[in-house]
Structure formats: C-alpha cells, structure tokens
Elongation factor-1 alpha (Sulfuriferula plumbiphila), 258 residues
Amino acid sequence: MNHDLKQYPQPITGMTLRRLPVAMRALFSCFLITIGMGFLAAIYYLFLQDVDPHQRMGMSLVPSVAAKYYGERSGTRLESALRGSMSSRISAADKAKVVGWLRDGATQDGFAGVQPIFENTCAVCHSAKPGLPIPPLTTFEQVKALAQVDMGTSLLVLARVSHVHLFGISIIFLLTGTIFAMSEISWKWRLPILVIPYLAIWADIGSWWMTKYEPVFAYVVVGGGALLGSALGVQIFFSLWEMWFADRPSKHTRQRML
C-alpha cells in the first residue's frame, strides 16, 4: 500500500479529479470550457471597446488603458481635431479664434464670435443629418459636447464596475478553484495557483482607481489582467488534463488504498 501511494503527491483517500465518475467529469469540463470561452469573449470585447479605437489614433496598449481611466487632459477633443485631422480644413486665423474660445472656457456668451466659423467651415460635413458617423457642430450644445476636457472614467462608473467585477470574478474563481483544488498537483504549486487569481483581481481593479489619478498605474492594470487570465488558464488546463488525459489508478490500486 505504501509503495502504491508514493506515485501520488498526496494520499488519495478522498475525491480527486482522476477518480471522479464520468458524469461529474463531463459536468466540470463543460463548465470550465464555457468559462474559458467567456473570458476570451470578454478580452475581445475590451479590445474592441477600449484598445482598438486608441490604436487607430496611434496609441499602444498601456497609453490606451491610461486614456480610459485618466483621460486625455492635454486639451479638448475639439482642439485636438483642429490641430490634427482637421487642421487643413480651417484657416490659421479661424483656428486660432476657435482655440482661444475653447481655452477661455467655451462659454455660451463667447460662442456668438465663433459660430460663423462652425457654420461656414464645419457644418458642411458636421451637420445633424441622420446616418452620418461624425458629430454635428451646428448648435452651442453640440459644440460644447466636444469642448470638454476628457477626465477619464468617472468615480460613479468606477464604483459600479468595480463592485460588479469583484463579486462576479471572485465567484468564478471560487468555482474553478474548487475544481482545481481536487487535482493531485503538489500543494506547493496548487496553493499559489488558487490564491494568485485573487491577488490579481485586487491589483487589477485597485489600479483602475489609482490610474484615475496617476496614469503610470496603467501598467498595473495590464499586468494584473494578464496575471488573472494566466491563472484562469492554468486552472482550466490542468483540471481538464487530470480529468481526461492523466493516468488513472487501476481498480486494484484503488481497492488497496480504500
């Protein structure tokens, strides 16, 4: 009996992934695969929502994350367009006048002085016509919407998204971790793999709040997310491996160990 037990990293007197009945292995496998697919879909959604639009403007991953939480505070969206993609479409004098109005606070009282510029230069394309993918610039309210400094994600949104992620992701790792805990990997490896996801959650979500005030913490957001995804992948892979591909104790060995 002792000789048989030496081939396992722990005494196999309880339920382990290798000894689960087929029905339980099938149930756990479907759950793990579905969670993995959901995580990949979430990553793709984040790419389309947050990363790809910034990459189209020439920004890499970390600056894109910083722009999401910290914002782009060097100027307003409208000023950035006037100095960038729209620079050739407006005269230098008109550009200086609009930028001056923006930096003076973009007030409604001062809008009368720049309104003819928007009507004669911008409204040709930026009109309130249905189906156009560009914002209209015909009224003060429409122009004002693009004349705000981007301060990033608001505290209200951060609080809402944070509590949803903390609740949801922690429950996911409770379930995947419970399955992985039944593996026969040595505890010196198993325990860190069970704990690291929660450290990654704290680092990832906590750094959202810190990036709101200091963009350098965007590196922690990226690192925490990568660590979380890696830990989830390890739990899923090794759990599936032990359930379906690892060697199983023979019937004679199981009887001797019971």
User: Anything to note?
Assistant: The chain has two domains: 18-68+152-257, 74-145. Confidence is low (pLDDT under 50) at residues 5-12, 252-258.
